[in-house]
Design a protein that fits this description.
Helix content: 40-55%
Strand content: 15-25%
CATH topology of the largest domain: MutS, DNA mismatch repair protein, Chain A, domain 3
Shape: elongated
Largest sheet: 6 strands, mixed
Strand order of the largest sheet: 3-4-2-1-5-6
Number of strands: 22
């Protein structure tokens, strides 16, 4: 639907002729004042779909109504000059977002005065004019997009499977779900940034490692070095971070000028308490060092705001602000401004005098109805509105009621009236309340603007530092929660190294609740004079080759994040990139880009060849998707030789092609390791009638990597596991032997 709407909009909306087209159906002289206002604003904003506030509805006109009806699924009908559609005012943001996602620019035109204030206007000409409306907001797809974070280390482009599961398409079963022990939303976003863009500098990696280790496993027992880190970790995870969870939202609302009194006070008090707590934590680090640790620098980087915060909190009534009572909250500040205070007293006095006039009207009604105990009643006229100051008259006394009283409600036994004086007083009261509310809101907006100017930048700096602390504590919790994780050791030198001893796939290990994951070791090394190395892994289908490749990628990713890794020990040099080609479920023809499966694979190989360097790790799971066997062998050998001999990268390559493995081993010699995943082949008799006289081949996977080249992929065993009928398997087995 969205694509159709966008194409329709591009073809149909000739926005420069908009005003003339709108006036064509009805002569301009016949336009109402409201319609003239619509034409003027739509002509002024020729590229924007406009929503006009009219009472409790947001109305759209002409082509805007047509496009909104198609996108939102609402009705559009012609009324006088234009086609019209409408949505409720309280759903404006929701529907505006849908229109923006459909490709439109959306503007909101709101009323700046009310019917009640227009009623008491002294100018007679004002009564004939429409309510004043001005554009107050404008949304586009660019403005509604989340701002992309800026990274100083953008060395990696990590796939979505690190942040969400390939099968469930959400966070559970992803790398992020294992690492995420954050207490705040902004801390979780910082952790995602670290997963998406690991560090490339050895000094930065080592510094983060030491910080995480000191938080998770402080050295010594209650020593001067260990106590500060224990206290910092406990205070952050149990008190400070959970308490600061709403801080970012409150600061953003203040910056947008939409903060309620409670949000504003909460932000100020959270920053105040945060400064006190962090000063206490900074005081724990009494041991002087020649160079401060990362944790000390983060704690010392929080800005000092106590004086400014106390000043702002002293200008308002905190208790009233927490109850969202804006009038009482801002009263202290309002009284300090002479002109505003005079207006406030004027409106307050007017409302008090109106209350006395209500009493005088009631006394008059008592005399008319000859009922000294008569009082006002209130009738619930809707879900949230009450009709006040009603005079209740029994039907037998109806002849006493004046003829000019307005009947509001009636039942079988009584009627409820509004005397004409009450109607006039209601209008005056509504105007006085609106004027008073506008004054209060104006003073409040000034206060929020002042808070934003002095607090926002420092507050966002606090949020940024808290996000870093939250992510560090999360990785420290991972180190504590998984005792079989270890801190990797980074080697600094000209030689390139990746040594994983008893490594495990972190996601699969976490999902295997009852059984333990079988670990494997990988060793790749090279030097400056002879760069590049290749590890070729073969084995049966479902034997664990892809899991081994993913294990290598995830361990390197975790290590360069600064995290502990699932292995007995890991030694490596810092890589500048990890490039992978893994076949996924559903790979095939790309309709959007008109590329076949084979072309997609070759495009990925081309990108790897162009971007990989001697400090890169390349992981390729099979080559030859959609190719004939001879072409797959040729491309596989050529690609591996280029990456190892020309580029000098570390490459882990999984393949079933025995000819490719043998040629690579002959050409590269000691640079090429050949490994296979162990398995046990067996033969068993069939159990059903169709196969009772036929022996079935089977294979048991050991998932352990050993030297050698696998002799078979055991695709027929995989077919049997997939449920292929036995007669087809037997026929395939015979054809295999013939070939």
């Amino acid at each position: 639907v969205y694509d159709r709407v966008i194409l329709t909009a591009i073809a149909a909306r000739k926005r420069q002729k908009r005003g003339a087209a709108a006036a064509a159906s009805v002569d301009a002289a016949q336009f109402t004042e409201m319609e003239k206002q619509v034409v003027a604003l739509r002509t002024l904003h020729i590229d924007t779909l406009l929503l006009f506030e009219c009472g409790y509805r947001m109305r759209l006109f002409a082509e805007d109504a047509e496009h909104a009806a198609a996108v939102l699924g609402i009705r559009a009908q012609r009324h006088r000059a234009f086609l019209e559609a409408s949505i409720p005012v309280h759903r404006t943001l929701f529907h505006a977002r849908r229109l923006v996602n459909a490709g439109f620019k959306v503007g909101v035109v709101k009323q700046v005065d009310s019917a009640a204030m227009r009623t008491v206007s002294e100018s007679r000409s004002a009564h004939r004019k429409p309510l004043q409306r001005y554009g107050t907001a404008r949304w586009t797809r660019w403005r509604s997009m989340h701002s992309k974070p800026f990274f100083t280390q953008a060395l990696y482009n990590v796939g979505d499977e690190t942040k969400r599961s390939q099968t469930t398409k959400h966070g559970v079963g992803s790398l992020f779900s294992i690492l995420n022990h954050t207490k705040t939303d902004f801390g979780a976003r910082r952790l995602r940034e670290w997963i998406r863009c690991p560090l490339g500098s050895l000094s930065e990696i080592t510094e983060r490692q030491q910080t995480i280790q000191s938080l998770a496993f402080p050295s010594g027992t209650l020593s001067k070095l260990s106590v500060p880190h224990i206290m910092v970790y406990e205070e952050l995870t149990t008190t400070i971070l959970p308490r600061c969870k709403p801080l970012l939202r409150c600061l953003q609302q203040i910056h947008l000028g939409k903060a309620t009194p409670s949000q504003t006070v909460n932000a100020l008090q959270m920053l105040q308490e945060l400064e006190v707590s962090l000063n206490e934590l900074k005081g724990l680090f009494t041991v002087k060092r020649s160079q401060a640790t990362q944790l000390e620098r983060i704690l010392g980087g929080f800005p000092t705001m106590s004086v400014v915060l106390l000043g702002h909190l002293g200008e308002i009534d905190v208790k009233s602000a927490k109850r969202n009572d804006m009038e009482l909250a801002i009263l202290k500040r309002l009284q300090q401004q002479r002109s505003q205070a005079d207006k406030y007293r004027e409106f307050t006095t007017r409302l008090e005098s109106l209350a006395e006039e209500y009493d005088s009207v009631l006394q008059s009604c008592r005399r008319i109805l000859q009922n000294s105990s008569l009082g006002y009643t209130t009738f619930r006229g809707g879900a949230v509105s009450d009709i006040r100051h009603l005079i209740q008259v029994n039907r037998e006394d109806l002849h006493v009621a004046p003829k000019d009283w307005l009947v509001v409600n009636s039942t079988k036994k009584l009627l409820r009236f509004h005397p004409k004086e009450i109607v006039q007083l209601h209008v005056q009261e509504e105007v006085a309340k609106q004027q008073k509310q506008q004054l209060i809101q104006s003073v409040w907006r000034q206060f929020v603007s002042q808070v934003d100017a002095q607090i926002y930048v420092m507050g966002m700096n606090c949020v940024d530092l808290l996000a870093t602390l939250d992510a560090l504590c999360s990785l420290a919790t991972v180190a504590q929660s998984y005792p079989n994780y270890t801190m990797p050791e980074f080697v600094n030198g000209e030689s390139s190294l990746l040594e994983i001893v008893d490594g495990r796939h972190p996601i699969i290990e976490a999902l295997l609740e009852q059984s333990s994951y079988i670990s494997n070791s990988v060793f790749l090394t090279s030097n400056a004079t002879s760069p590049g190395s290749l590890l070729v892994v073969s084995g049966p289908n479902m034997g664990g080759k892809t899991s081994l490749l993913r294990m290598c990628a995830l361990i390197v990713l975790l290590a360069q994040m600064g995290s502990f890794v699932p292995a007995t020990s890991v030694r490596l040099t810092a890589f500048d990139g990890v490039y992978t080609l893994m076949h996924r479920h559903g790979a095939g023809f790309d309709v959007q880009h008109q590329s076949s499966s084979c072309e997609q694979e070759l495009t990925a190989l081309s990108a790897i060849s162009q971007n990989a360097t001697a400090k890169s790790l390349v992981l390729i799971d099979e080559i030859g998707f959609g190719m004939a066997a001879q072409y797959a062998e040729a491309v596989g050998v050529a690609q591996m030789l280029y990456l190892v001999e020309k580029v000098g990268s570390h490459v882990v390559f999984a393949s079933h092609l025995t000819a490719v493995i043998q040629r690579l081993q002959t050409r590269l010699g000691s640079k090429c390791q050949t490994k296979q995943l162990e398995y046990h082949c067996y033969t068993q008799a069939g159990e059903d009638k169709a196969t009772s006289e036929v022996a079935q081949e089977g294979v048991t996977f050991h998932y352990v990597i050993t030297d050698g080249i696998a002799s078979d992929s055991f695709a027929l065993d995989t077919a049997r596991r997939a449920g292929i009928p036995p007669q087809i398997l037997e026929r395939a087995r015979g054809l295999r032997d013939d070939l």
